């Protein structure tokens, strides 16, 4: 069935919701995926326990460096760690003990409460690509991203029901000053979408600005008591957290906002070339970083993150969609569940320069394991191209179509009497045809996923319509979505206050472009 | 790592095998995948038992038609079924009882014993696309298939180590007479490959010719006691077996050759629009067809087959790569395992007219579930395009690359001391780099899958090399493989006898083109 399916009941149920979905498919939708199929788990308990023991050894004997952050080192010392210079050695069990205050799942609030997402448990939240300096579309080709592109991607993510989240740096707006662009990015997420979003992590004061803008939007007390931002804190693998990331981490954790502690791994360069070795390092880094959030504010929501790919052993270039990182994803998800913490990984990752078959093969090699493996928060779920260097308009549309299918797959099988359809088998009988039978007619609208961009027509019809490939059809669709885009209402007082905040911050310091 | 990886030890082990693989990657390979990761199973026992009970109800109350085959009806009557006209009603448990003589797994012998495949258990065998009347390549576009194309596809499947099987009708050679082309097809599989292959099912005498050619190749007694052919018997869903398929079935089962009993389902047309309803019908059809093989010859190898997709509820056109058929695949695999019988389904299916991103998305939506769901025999694993109307040269190459990755993924995680890589983590330490470390150097060749066609280079390098998409690179590769193709040795006496058999058969009757 169509995209209307992914916009299922919301807070209305049954016939009403289906009727509403038919009438206006953009108004009713599921805010995130609730998985009802079993997990795929590729490691047995013995392997998981071995990895945990090895990670404990790494944490104790090798340690993790917390660089250029005296406060972090003092916090670790006071918590009982053995701090030698910038190297922190963790007594066995310390990180796990600290993590007992971290929630197993949490709600990230959106300014539209119907868009709130629950991160953790059996839920999966899809967010768009994060971080590319370039954008690409069919006509414009590859070029540096601008704030206009950024706003377009926010608008498109808002318009695509299979994206549950507005994301963060959907592309880098390189036309804006480095020290101020975070203001326009956060502002765009607030202004052009009502889905949950991410804050800036490139400097502590930019993180603080992100929190301050949320305080204007949600109220100061609400922000202190609730999670309204989720923020990506990458480890500087192997075994290092740098002062930039630590600075942002501290701001967010102390503001009770969520952090995703993500070892960023290209295996073979930043971790060993093996799956188990990579998982060991990921677990050690994630444990140390996540535990640190609880030193900053016990109870602050934190997500076990993993970005893992591998490199070409010929060229050193990152590769995507290969089997070894898929195994890392499955294994890391299992390790996170054993910690009873939410897990971030996966997406629609690829190395391809074009939204071609390579891009699709590689993306699906990551996306299906994302769903089968039980990832809770998925950055880069749509729009990622060229190893994350490019945000692609067409790929955003193509990926969103796949994401919509993931919701159905994760929803599991209907075993109700209607699902069993014995009446249909009886009615049709041997040699008959099901198209016209009563059961088919009754289930016509909800029976099958209906892609807005896949072509299933006859060769002759497809040829007569121009013989387009998938990116060409996706191109038409994003233009249509942008043309039809309508901004969600925003309280005028809050809008004004946000404008004033951004203007004030911009006026306070000169532009910087490095 | 490279394709050399999929050509692992063979009968030589360790260092020797690796050395051989480096020197000549076409000589050593794994003949099929042995899965060492857990299965993904989406249905619980209660759902499976309900489907089994419903299928029993269908078999008993509605029944299955065995059309225009008096012998089949008599066999069923004698076995205790209630035969009314062509409609056979099965007392509860009859089919399952009959199936107790069917083997849970079996070896299909190839003329090169190193290529023998075991079908069933935790094994997966990949065979190329089956049945398309058209072929497509980048320069020639879409056109009717010829025997020259057929031979090319056999040669390419022989050259691609991730294809374990030569398949059957890799494309329809429409330039040959309908009543004789099976001779040239079987001959091509024997002559141009030494992998296992499939026999003709389009008429009983063509099935008999296929067996006769195998008797020349393997010896009459060997064929009677061993499986050398696997053959695709489609149900005429819903709930019908026709005389053509029954005729071929009887020939093969009585010759102790394997049959794949495959309900061929486009859900919404040939089965109910629901997953459970479709599974119920599939199980009923498969049980009846498989049990019939045991009436023909108890102990004859038989495979539970499922080809299931769905249709567009707008146009009636078949769709591929959507979530509902994926759920059918997972469920049918579970049902087959509960019967302790081998299972056939899946592949790299797509509706796309081009080897573009749609083709790749759709193919992976089927292929990954094929592996995670535990399919034992996979037709259409490579080369399928346009809903099975087209055998694509480029897609064959693209799919084979994905199949090679499936072998690694299915192989599971290395938990050995080398796999744990603690020494590497110690050696490199915080902030270091793994590329030069001893562990990386020692595992350099086998660390990561190396695609022969994916591009992971920098944008600049890719652009300088022509900015090719994946089909363009695949085009170069199939031409290279064909140019380098060398036929496997065939005993001259057998070759001569086969030539004589084919010539004699061709001379015996006039050509027919319908």
Summarize the structure.
The structure is a homodimer of 514-residue chains. Chain A is 44% helix and 14% strand. With 514 residues, chain A is of the alpha/beta class.
Notes on the protein architecture:
Chain A has about 525 residues and is of the alpha/beta class. Chain A folds into two domains: about 5-30 and about 415-445; about 100-410, Trimethylamine methyltransferase-like (TIM Barrel, Alpha-Beta Barrel). Chain A is about 45% helix and about 15% strand. Chain A contains 19 helices and 20 strands. The first copy, chain A, has helices at about 15-25, 45-60, 70-80, 95-100, 145-160, 180-190, 205-220, 220-225, 245-255, 275-295, 325-340, 355-370, 395-410, 415-420, 420-430, 440, 460-465, 470-485, 490-510; strands at about 35, 65, 80-85, 85-90, 105-110, 115-120, 125, 135, 140-145, 195-200, 230-235, 240, 260-265, 300-305, 305-310, 320, 345, 375-380, 385, 390. In chain A, the strands form five sheets. In chain A, strands 10, 11, 13, 14, 15, 16 and 17 form a seven-stranded mixed beta sheet that branches. A four-stranded mixed beta sheet of chain A has the order 3-4-2-12. A four-stranded mixed beta sheet of chain A has the order 9-8-20-19. In chain A, strand 8 (about 135) and strand 9 form a beta hairpin. In chain A, helix 2 (about 45-60) packs across helix 10, helix 10 packs across helix 11 (about 325-340) and helix 12 (about 355-370) runs parallel beside helix 13. The interface between A and B is large, with 126 and 126 residues. Chains A, B: It is an enzyme of class 2 (transferase). Chains A, B: This is Methyltransferase. Chains A, B: Belongs to the trimethylamine methyltransferase family.
């Amino acid at each position: 069935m169509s995209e209307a399916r992914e916009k299922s009941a919301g807070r209305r149920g049954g016939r009403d919701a289906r009727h509403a979905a038919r009438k206006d498919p953009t108004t009713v939708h599921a805010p995130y995926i609730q998985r009802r199929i079993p997990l795929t788990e590729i490691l047995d308990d013995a392997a998981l326990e071995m990895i945990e023991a090895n990670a404990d050894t790494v944490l104790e004997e090798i340690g993790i460096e917390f660089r250029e952050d005296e406060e972090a080192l003092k916090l670790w010392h006071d918590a009982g760690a053995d701090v030698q210079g910038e190297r922190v050695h963790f007594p066995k069990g310390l990180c796990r003990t600290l993590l007992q205050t971290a929630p197993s799942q949490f709600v990230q609030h959106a300014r539209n409460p119907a868009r709130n997402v629950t991160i953790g448990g059996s839920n999966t939240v899809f967010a768009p690509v994060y971080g590319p300096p370039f954008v690409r579309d069919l006509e414009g080709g590859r070029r540096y991203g601008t704030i206009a592109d950024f706003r377009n991607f926010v608008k498109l993510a808002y318009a695509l029901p299979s994206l549950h989240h507005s994301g963060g740096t959907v592309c880098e707006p390189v036309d804006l000053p480095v020290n101020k662009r975070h203001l326009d990015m956060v502002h765009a997420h607030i202004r052009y979408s009502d889905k949950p979003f991410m804050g800036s992590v490139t400097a502590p004061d930019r993180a603080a600005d992100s929190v301050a803008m949320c305080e204007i939007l949600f109220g100061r007390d609400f922000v202190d008591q609730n999670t309204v931002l989720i923020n990506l804190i990458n480890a500087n693998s192997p075994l290092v957290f740098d002062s930039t990331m630590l600075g942002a981490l501290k701001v967010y954790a102390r503001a009770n906002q969520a952090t995703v502690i993500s070892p960023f791994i290209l295996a073979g360069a930043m971790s060993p070339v093996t799956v188990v070795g990579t998982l060991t390092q990921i677990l050690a880094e994630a444990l140390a970083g996540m535990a640190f959030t609880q030193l900053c504010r016990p109870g602050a929501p934190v997500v076990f993150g993993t970005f893992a790919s591998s490199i070409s052993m010929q060229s050193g270039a990152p590769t995507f969609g290969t089997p070894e990182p898929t195994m890392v994803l499955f294994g890391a998800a299992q390790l996170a569940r054993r910690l009873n913490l939410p897990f971030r990984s996966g997406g629609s990752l690829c190395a391809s320069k074009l939204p071609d078959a390579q891009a699709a093969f590689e993306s699906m090699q990551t996306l299906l394991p994302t769903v089968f493996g039980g990832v809770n928060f998925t950055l880069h779920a749509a729009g990622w191209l060229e190893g994350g260097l490019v945000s692609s308009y067409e790929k955003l549309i193509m990926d969103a179509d796949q994401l919509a299918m993931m919701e159905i797959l994760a929803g599991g099988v209907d075993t109700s009497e209607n699902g069993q359809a014995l009446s249909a088998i009886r009615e049709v009988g041997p040699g008959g045809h099901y198209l016209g039978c009563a059961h088919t007619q009754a289930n016509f609208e909800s029976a099958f996923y209906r892609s807005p961009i896949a072509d299933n027509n006859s060769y002759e019809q497809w040829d007569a319509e121009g013989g387009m490939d998938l990116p060409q059809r996706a191109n038409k669709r994003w233009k249509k979505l942008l043309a039809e885009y309508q901004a969600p209402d925003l309280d005028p007082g809050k809008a004004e206050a946000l404008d004033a905040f951004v203007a004030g911050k911009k006026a306070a310091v000169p532009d910087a472009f490095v």
